[in-house]
Amino acid sequence: MDYYFQDGTTKTPAAFLNELKPVLGNVLIRIRLVFKNLTRVPSEADVLNAANALLDSKIRRRRSLVIQTLSDPVSIQNVIYEKIGNNSYIISFAFQITNVTISKDLQLRNGTYDLIQNTINSLLNTILNVKDAPAFVFPQANYTFNGTAIEANFEYIFVEGETKWTPSGFLSANLNISELSTFTTPAAQTESTVHVVLRPTTLVVVQTRMLFNSSCPVPSESLVLRAIQTLLSAQLTNLTDSVNRLNFTYEKISETSYAVFFTLSISNISMSKNAELRNDTYTQVENIINNALNTLLNDAGAAPFEPQSSFFTSSGNQVNGDMEYYFQDGDTKTPAAFLDELTPVLGNVLIRIRLVFKNLTRVPSEADVLNAANALLDSKIRRAQCLITANQQLHFQECTAN
Known about the structure:
Blueprint: H1 14-20, E1 23-35, H2 44-54, H3 57-60, E2 74-75, E3 80-84, E4 88-102, H4 106-128, E5 142-145, E6 149-158, E7 163-164, H5 169-177, E8 193-194, E9 202-213, H6 221-235, E10 243-254, E11 257-269, H7 279-297, E12 309-315, E13 318-328, H8 336-342, H9 366-376, H10 379-382
Parallel strand pairs: 1-6, 9-13
Antiparallel strand pairs: 1-4, 2-4, 3-4, 5-6, 7-8, 9-11, 10-11, 12-13
Helix pairs in contact: 2-5, 6-8
């Protein structure tokens, strides 16, 4: 049976088509600037006075959403100050973008995340960087999607140290209050070195390869990707906040082996500038990735599977890693929930056959038909057997008088 549908058709598989449509939702952006281990912590009044004097009102004050355009993030809260401990504090901002087209497909939604990241980068440069200075590229935010809206959470940590930076008036005022040292104001600066920001949050990107060998034929690509998407939808909220991007692909290797690739990124990881001390960071990254994959693919309470090999490198404020897993028949530590999604179910098949005789000169009686069946058909065909194999006897129904 063939069906044909096109734009304008009134009778369609509506529920199916609705599942394919992107949703029109909102994007909530939360930005936290964390100043840690300072010699002096400014008061809330100091910070808010600096914000009122040196930040655009579109950034620092809550606005009405009705005046917003599609690409314009609107501030939905006033600047918030929070002191944490004796020598640290946080400045928080929140923005919203409405009427954003969001794909339900995870891989297509990554394009939306990239656009949001550009918006966040622009906001941060407006808040932290001097006007007309080269834009600074900030680490990736943490993204979550609940079916109708995206929430982007970004945290940037400042501690005393040294790096190249051209602070905005607002950032300079806060650093001066905190007695953070030996730099001049932006107006008088002749070079861009400022003594702030020892280590911005490190971005980590890890590709994992899971190789499955079996004596059975491999599952199809569509079945594997659908199984992962099902598990991701169920477990997304259980993944650690630091895991903020996750893509996956499938590769058939042979008739009995296939591989699944996961690419994950992590934020909020601190890394030493000393290359010899980075092994601790690499171990931390490996543990986070392995825990995330077990959360996604394994049964709750099951023994965790672990990678057979891993390799990490770093450049600047980014870590890149590769992790490999191998599974075969008989292994006790496996991604059990994922494999269960691929396992065929043991079920029943019900077959109903109707023979319709139409427009006859004479319609036989029920007795005629059943007598013929009893005389000429095998009893396995015409009579109900044990419920394991059949569920009704031959049935006759007269539909019309002719």
